[in-house]
Amino acid sequence: MRIATTQYQATLSRSLELNQTMVSRLTQQMASGKAQMLPSDDPVANVRVSRLTREEAIIGQYRENIAAVKIRLSKNEGYLSGMVGDLGEAHDLMVWAADGGNTPDDLKAMVNSLESLRDSLLYTSNTRDQEGNYLFSGTQTNTAPVRLDGASYVYDGNEKEQKVVVGNGISQAVNVNLAGMPALLNQLNTVIEALRNATTGSSDPTLHATIASTMDMVDSTQNALAAKVATLGGAQNVLTTLDNNHANVSLSNQTAMRDLSALDYGVASSELAGYNMALQATYQSYSKVSNLSLFNVL
Length: 298
Prior knowledge:
- There is one protein chain.
- By secondary structure, this protein is mainly alpha-helical.
- The chain has 2 domains: 51-257, CATH 1.20.1330.10; 267-298.
- Helices cover 69% and strands 6% of the residues.
- The strands form 2 sheets. A two-stranded antiparallel sheet has the order 1-2.
- Strand 3 and strand 4 form a beta hairpin.
- Helix 2 (43-97) runs antiparallel to helix 4.
- The radius of gyration is 39 Å and the shape is rod-shaped.
- Residues 3-141 form the Flagellin N-terminal domain.
- InterPro entries: Flagell_FlgL, Flagellin, Flagellin_N.
- It comes from Pseudoduganella lurida.
- This is Flagellar hook-associated protein 3 FlgL.
- It is found in: Bacterial flagellum; Secreted.
């Protein structure tokens, strides 16, 4: 069977085009480090990489949320721990005030300390973050949680939770409300006035009852806040564990993505050398065929 020169040249042209295409593709792959330059190069791998990329974005958002929530919880824990300390001092003052050996002057000497503690508790209750949002007013972050209404303290916040998503189906409350704080502040005002106006010692039944009631409320509030502090600490530990889990999943995803999309340079180099060799051979063959004529063989 005889093969026409034009047919042979067409075959060589197709071979040149194929080899040039493969050399160009392999060169681009080696420059980028990617095995797939187009989705059509490996549709199955491309779908898997796309899915892993989306999952990585979601995990990244979870981890950002966790970092922000941990900062918020840590700050809340610090403020509440300070309040627990203030209440410890208030408890000690009430124990001292309950001592039947106190004179009216002794009782009046406690007033300034109690007023300072009351004001400290009020100030901390109305703490704002760097963006001006109140930390302890539930979801009403634009409203100061505790204010003085006439002669009494009232709570203007709510008891709803602000929740942030930190995992698939997992959310964490970031706020703590202090709905019970006005009752304590009002009770402190009551005992402050009773001590300021004392004319007899703390053995007076009415005064003693006021001191005892205040001590009970101080203790119950201190216990409640201490429980909140413990809850915040536990939540931070859980978030740390969850973040570590996210990090492990992320590492696994990144490894899978590299395996699916990264180029095997050893294989690519070998293929590139082969196609370059074939390309050179095709060029040589094409050159020889192009120069053939009857005069060369006569």
